[in-house]
Amino acid sequence: MLSSSKIKSVDFYRKIPRDLTEASLSGAGLSIIAALAMMFLFGMELSDYLTVNTSTSIIVDNSSDGEFLRIELNISFPALSCEFASVDVSDVLGTNRLNITKTIRKFSIDPNLNPTGSEFHPGPIPKVTKHGDDADGEYGEGSVALTTDNFDRYSHQYPILVVNFYAPWCYWSNRLKPSWEKTAKIIKERYDPDLDGRILLAKVDCTEEGDLCRRNHIQGYPSVRIFRKGSDIRDEHGHHDHESYYGERDTDSLVQAMEALVAPVQLESRRLALENKSDNTTDNAKRPAPSAGGCRIEGFVRVKKVPGNLVISARSGSHSFDASQMNMSHVISHLSFGKKITPRLMAEFKRLTPYLGRSNDRLNGRQYISHHGDGNANVTIEHYLQVVKTEVVSRKSSWEYKLVEEYEYTAHSSLAQSTHIPVAKFHFELSPMQVLITENSKSFSHFITNVCAIIGGVFTVAGILDSILHNTMRLVKKVELGKNF
């Protein structure tokens, strides 16, 4: 059994009797300085321990979010009507989706981007199969030609005014013309404007009455609009409230639609008004007309992770568009790729701001305006987007977890003149590589080791300095005593 004296022999910290030690003013000063140095170095080491270091690498994209990518958008078009605005997607694999409506919402806006009402609900667009009667040269002129000067007078005179806004060069307008004039003659015979006066069919040549057509937000030809007496009075937003006709365009279908429009007026005059008495086909052929000339498009689309295009344009299978009058100017409020960052990750996102968020909204707030009249007709606005995924991974001890993943992009835009209908086109191409940012936190054992090294090192250095100072002072005193002798 070991004795206490043998155990004491391995003591690293042998004690000197207090009576044999002597305190000095210089030693007290060095002790204070050493303590302050220890505290300062400890604070720096603690800050370094709490700071997460990162390393960046480029690896092959191993995304776990499947083969599809989500594109969020909020884009305003001051001069594109919601009536014809279409969001299309295509890619190099042959995917071609036209007029996406399930995940897209549209709102009518004025030229200053102010909303003019609630969400624009166009409803299902009936497929027009009968575009008119064959021209036999015997249909004559049955409809009334309206101009800017007499349009308001006629719209307030008749309970129902149906107007065909057309362009002489338009193929579909010429297909409609024979049946439109025949229908106008038949309706005039049945409901004499002078004796009955409940309905009138008219027409407007948009090549001659450009201001009138722009006032009624006509962008495609032919556009058949239904004006009800008094409903075209401007409200506080300054727009007209009426309907568009999208039914069949042969004489029989048009006559049937006009009869359905007149019937409620007749019932109301006899105080026998009943709702929903019109033919269902006619109801489906009518849609609200756009309340303003602009449109804000918002929502999202899903695309494959291959090079492709997101195209916003005016589209219709039974209308023509004047390319020289189409203006695809737009303001991008938001355009991003991938999932939105949830509020739960916002705190982490702020911490990771030095590494993320520098180019995921590169086009947000940008305006791309093309002014007509200065040689900028038929202008297509194109954006070329290079998309790359950035992922941040945090490593804690022997395990790791994903903090944030997002898609960042660079953008280059251009305005180009084209002989086709102008569009706003977003070309996107995803990089096969991804940026991996790894957070490497320091271990606690490394932190404790450094703290011990700081305390021991400062204490040792301070002891050496104190010994040197003490011995130097003793030597000086001896020299002084020697000189005195």
TrEMBL record:
PROSITE patterns: THIOREDOXIN_2 (PS51352)
Pfam families reported in the protein's UniProt record: COPIIcoated_ERV, ERGIC_N, Thioredoxin
Localization of this protein: Membrane
Location of the Thioredoxin domain: 119-263
Membrane-related topology note: Single-pass membrane protein
Segments traversing the membrane: 20-44, 447-469
Keywords from the UniProt entry: Membrane, Signal, Transmembrane, Transmembrane helix
InterPro entries (UniProt xref): Erv, Erv_C, Erv_N, Thioredoxin-like_sf, Thioredoxin_domain
Alphabetical list of Gene3D superfamilies matching this protein: Glutaredoxin
GO cellular component: COPII-coated ER to Golgi transport vesicle; endoplasmic reticulum; membrane
Family: Belongs to the protein disulfide isomerase family.
Protein name (database record): Thioredoxin-like fold
Gene source species: Macleaya cordata
